[in-house]
Amino acid sequence: MSDKSDVDTSDSLTSNSRTRDSRASDPGRSNGGEGVTRRTALGCGAGVAAISAAAALATAVSAPPAAAAGTARRGNASAPGADALPRTVAGVRIPHSELARNTVRFVRSVSSGTLFNHVMRTYLFGSLLCDRRGVHYDGELAFVAAALHDLGLVEAYRTRAERFEVDGADAAQRFLREQRMPAERVAVVWDAIALHTNAGIATRKRPEIAMVSVGSGADFSGNELQRIPSDALEEILAAFPRKGFKQDALDTILSLCRTRPMSVLMHPFAEVGRRHIPEFPVPTVEDLLLAAPFEE
To answer: Which of 195, 224, 227, 235 is the most exposed place for a label (fewest CB within 10 A)?
Structure first.
């Protein structure tokens, strides 16, 4: 899933292939989500940079969540042979290496059908957009990153305060280490997932990282969809139907906002929480700025 809708990536992607208001509510009120109030959130937010640093350190030194990659299931695990995918869709070859097949099997086993189809469309859209610009990329690496990029939206892999992109990148990393993928390739996948909602950064990175951002953006908001031929679009949607993706995505975003509000601190998803959830406790950027402990 991507929350970017207005970034024109055509020039940056090609070149890099070559090299609310807080005043409306009392800051002490709470919506009940995990006991977080705006006041307590501001207490945390006064050191938001420290939150990020501490979270990164905790990720590096702590054990993985109880639901380790490869063990979580949502009750729709694939039957034998159900992980098979078409060889090509809309002229895009789908990798069928052992790693690609294991990745498909794993993602299907932990994801809803709607989410699975989204990540497949992400790869296809990203591939087509890169192909039309003559961008060269590692197909297996891009496919694996795209397939795994929304693991952070799966309940089993959500943590209390990390952004869903980071939760997903960490879960993917654990899975790929189990698959014995070389560390340098795992690092590319981690970056692709962690950065996929920030097209302004992702499209300045290597093509496989850019592809996940561009492809997910095309499927989430239609960004750059006009560059994809209508017959190719029809074929992709026939192979991997949307299945109510818009409502599913909105429900997922609201779930994150309600149950793990600190995970959307300074995240675009917080805008959705403020619109739909009364007394949403997460501070705005303005709140954080004005609560900084300096006398001025």
So the answer is: 227
Looking at residue 130, its amino acid is C
Reported pTM: 0.77
Three-state SS for 161? Answer: coil
For 137, the token pair is 């990329």
The CA distance from 199 to 210, in Å, is 7
The one-letter amino acid at 99: L
Token pair recorded at residue 180? 């014995």
Distance, in Å, from the CA atom of 269 to the CA atom of 250, rounded to the nearest integer, reads 10
Long-range contacts of 291-295 (CB under 8 A, 24+ apart): 291/42, 291/45, 291/46, 292/46, 293/46
Residue 203: partners with Cβ closer than 8 Å, 6 or more residues away: 7, 9, 12, 13, 16, 210, 213, 214
Coil, strand or helix at 165: helix
Which has more confidence, 214 or 67? Answer: 214
Tokens representing 249 are 């995505």
| SS3 category, 243 | coil
For tokens 């937010």, the residue is 45
| pLDDT tens by residue, 199-238 | 999 999 999 999 999 999 999 999 999 999 999 999 999 9
Distance of CA 49 to the CA centre of its chain: 21
Q: Helix, strand, or coil here: 88?
A: strand
DSSP per position, 58-104: HHHHSPPPSS-TTT---S-PPPTTTT---SEETTEEPP-SHHHHHHH
Q: In which residue are the tokens 């280490």 written?
A: 177
Residue with tokens 């790869």: 123
DSSP state of 157: G
Longest dimension (CA), the chain: 66
Q: How many CB atoms lie within 10 A of CB 82?
A: 12
Instruction: Enumerate residues 6+ apart whose C-beta is below 8 A from 79.
Output: none
Dist CA 203 CA 192 (whole Å): 10
